[in-house]
Design goal:
Length: 317
C-alpha cells in the first residue's frame, strides 16, 4: 500500500485536509489536459473530487502498471452509506477495453457490497461501455471528469487545477519508487526482405522495400509511397516513384511509369519505360529499416526492487 501524497509532499507540496496544494497558475480544464496528466496527478485529482463530494476515502494502492485503486464510502451522512471501489486505468492502456472492465469487475466482486467506478481517461470502446453497464459499473473518462470539474464552484475548480498542473504534470511517475520517469530513446534496425513479388491490381498503400523486387505478369500496381530495392524486374505494369540501387529490368510486357532512379536500366523487347529516368549517383545506400521510438523508464540512482521493470509508452507524443 503506497500513499502518493507523501512523495508529492517531499517534492515541495504541502498536505492540507487530505489535499496537496501548490502555487496558482493561469489556465482552464479541458478533456485533453486531463487525459494528458501523469497517472499520479490523475489519481489524486479523482481522490480530490471524491473528497470534495463528501466521500470518506481509504488509502490508495498503486500498482506497477500505473493504475491506482482505492475504496471509499459514499453518502456517509445517510442511514445507508454505500461502498465503492475506484480504479484508474493502467498507463499503457489509459483507455478501457472489455477485458479491462472484466478484470476490474472481478476485483469489485472481492469487495463487500461495493459498486465499481472505472476511470479511463483515454475513453471506453463501445464494447467496454456495454460490459460496464452489464456489471453495473460507472464508466468515467476525461470528458466526464471535465464536466464534473466545470460543475464545481470556480474557486474549488481552480484550486484543483493548480494542484494537478503544478510543475511537470505530464511525465509519468514510477509506480515503484514514485519518482519521475525519464525519456529513453530507442532505435531498432532490421534488414529488408530478400525478395518480394507484387501481384497487386490497384493501389498499394504499404511502404515497399526489398533486395529484389518483381512486378509480376498481370499486375497493375500504383504505389502511393516511394519504392526502394536493389534490383527491380518488371513483367507487369507499375506506376510510382522507384529508387533502385542496382539495375531496373523491363521484361517483355512490362511497363513502368512515374519517376525511376537506378544505377542501370535494361529494356528488353516488349518492355516500356514511360516515366522519367535518372542515373543514381554516389555510394549505394544500406538496405536496412530503422525504426525510432522512445519510452519512459526509471533512472532512480537508488532504485527499489522493480524499478528496472518499468517501461511506459508515451501518450500522444
Amino acid at each position: 500500500m503506497l500513499d502518493p501524497f507523501s512523495t508529492l509532499a517531499e517534492a515541495g507540496f504541502s498536505q492540507q485536509a487530505g489535499l496537496i496544494t501548490a502555487g496558482a497558475e493561469d489556465g482552464h480544464w479541458t478533456p485533453e489536459l486531463i487525459a494528458g496528466l501523469d497517472w499520479l496527478r490523475l489519481a489524486e485529482l479523482v481522490r480530490a473530487i471524491a473528497a470534495h463530494s463528501g466521500c470518506e476515502l481509504a488509502r490508495s494502492m498503486v500498482l506497477e502498471d500505473g493504475s491506482v485503486m482505492f475504496a471509499m464510502l459514499e453518502q456517509v451522512n445517510t442511514p445507508h452509506p454505500r461502498r465503492a471501489l475506484v480504479k484508474t486505468a493502467a498507463w499503457n492502456e489509459w483507455g478501457a477495453t472489455p477485458e479491462t472492465v472484466m478484470h476490474f469487475a472481478r476485483e469489485v466482486r472481492t469487495a463487500d457490497r461495493a459498486r465499481g467506478i472505472l476511470v479511463a481517461p483515454g475513453g471506453f470502446s463501445p464494447a467496454a461501455l456495454l460490459a460496464a453497464q452489464q456489471h453495473q459499473m460507472e464508466a468515467v473518462d476525461a470528458d466526464t471528469l471535465h464536466q464534473v470539474l466545470l460543475s464545481l464552484p470556480a474557486e474549488r475548480s481552480d484550486f484543483f487545477f493548480n494542484i494537478a498542473t503544478a510543475g511537470d504534470c505530464r511525465a509519468p511517475t514510477c509506480p515503484v519508487c514514485l519518482r519521475k520517469l525519464e525519456r529513453e530513446d530507442l532505435t531498432s534496425r532490421s534488414r529488408i526482405p530478400e525478395a518480394s513479388v507484387i501481384r497487386h491490381v490497384g493501389l498499394v498503400a504499404d511502404h515497399v522495400q526489398a533486395e529484389r523486387l518483381l512486378i509480376a505478369e498481370g499486375a497493375e500496381a500504383s504505389f502511393l509511397h516511394e519504392v526502394r530495392c536493389r534490383e527491380l524486374r518488371v513483367a507487369g505494369k507499375a506506376t510510382g516513384d522507384f529508387v533502385c540501387e542496382g539495375t531496373v529490368i523491363l521484361l517483355p510486357g512490362g511497363m513502368l511509369d512515374g519517376t525511376v532512379a537506378a544505377r542501370a536500366l535494361k529494356v528488353e523487347d516488349g518492355g516500356e519505360l514511360r516515366g522519367r529516368f535518372r542515373i543514381l549517383q554516389g555510394p549505394p545506400q544500406p538496405f536496412v529499416q530503422e525504426t525510432s521510438r522512445w519510452q519512459w523508464i526509471c533512472r532512480n540512482t537508488d532504485p527499489k526492487p522493480g524499478c528496472e521493470n518499468i517501461a511506459f509508452e508515451p501518450h500522444g507524443r
